[in-house]
Amino acid sequence: MWEKFKALRERLAGLIESYERPAVEDATYEELFSPDFNRSAACREVVRRLTPLLYQMAFAKTGQAGEADQLMITLTGEIVHQFPAGSGYMGLQRLAVVIRGVLGSEAFETAGLPRLYYTQLPLYYLPVGDRECMKAALDRMANPADQGPMIDQGSVTETLRRANRQLEDAMYRDFDTDRLRKITEGYLPWERRKTS
């Protein structure tokens, strides 16, 4: 009887603990790289978030879709080893080292992609609706040739402006500027825009 009670207590403690943590899709990168999340769930989420950018980098290296696919498989295999490792706030920078190791610095530095890559960090401090809108815009910037669903410019312009302001606010509110510069290799924060 005591063993059943002990097992139930442990199971309930785990259930309660799971409600205290954010859902994996809402977690910040710092949280995903911490030991608080299931390793495989955190890794899948990071790969899901970064796939559009990583694929553009792989394609920039090879110029061939099939070869880029193979590099994505290799890259994903290397990313798995980063969970959990070290402090959470350096997670994207550790991945940048892995990405450069697999794809090379030239592919990583392609067409402004590092800035889009590191913009992922404050993105998950935005409210969900604005985050999704900003994420769609960033994915479109990473892959302008994508012929996916068209974004209705008229209906999202104000949402994008608001999300961009909130993204800037998050960079300056939720991060120490020097620390953010360090963990993003100097790509963030960008200079704050003057508001009228």
Largest sheet: none
Radius of gyration using CA atoms only: 19 Å
Shape: globular
The low-pLDDT segments are 15-20
Helix content: 55-70%
How many separate structural domains?
1
Category by helix and strand content: mainly alpha
Count of DSSP E strands?
0
Distance between the termini: 69 Å
Compressed to H and E, one letter per element, the order equals HHHHHHHHHH
Mean pLDDT: 78
Beta-strand residue percentage: under 5%
SS summary, helix count: 10
Helix and strand arrangement:
Elements (H helix, E strand, L loop, with lengths): L1 H19 L8 H4 L6 H24 L2 H16 L10 H13 L1 H4 L4 H11 L4 H15 L10 H21 L3 H7 L13
Plain-language structure description:
The protein has helices at residues 2-20, 29-32, 39-62, 65-80, 91-103, 105-108, 113-123, 128-142, 153-173, 177-183. Residues 15-20 have low confidence and may be disordered. The protein is 68% helix and 0% strand. The chain contains ten helices and no strands. It has 196 residues and is mainly α. It is globular, with a radius of gyration of 19 Å. It has one domain.
